[in-house]
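Problem: given the chain below (133 residues), write out its structure.
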Amino acid sequence: MTKFDDWYKDNQPGYSVGSSDCFLKERLERAFEAGQKAGPEWIPVSDRLPVDCRNVFIKGVNDCGMDRTAKAMYCREFELIASPDYNEEWCDYKEETDEYFVPEGWYEDNTSSETDYAIDFKVTHWQPLPEIK
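Solution.
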């Protein structure tokens, strides 16, 4: 176990960083090694949501009751134009601009393609990404 693992266990009780959360763990480890706090406290989604489809860290619980973390963005209605490969029946259409938008909700950041996938677990908290200098 690394110093980061000890810090994460003490500062994020009840949440573990598993192998499926490689990006999250790598980003937090780099911030930790740089001597920075990994980010502000977790913000309940019931208090407020992030703005401008900005990537943040999220945590929540899936249908099996397992804790989940991810890098994701929250998009409000008519905020993010859908890419051409989205199914038009799934998208929200805005007649005034003749454009299709992704429905309001949480979307996992997918850096390997232009498609961002809807989060399939209940998001309970979020926090901004740590700045790495």
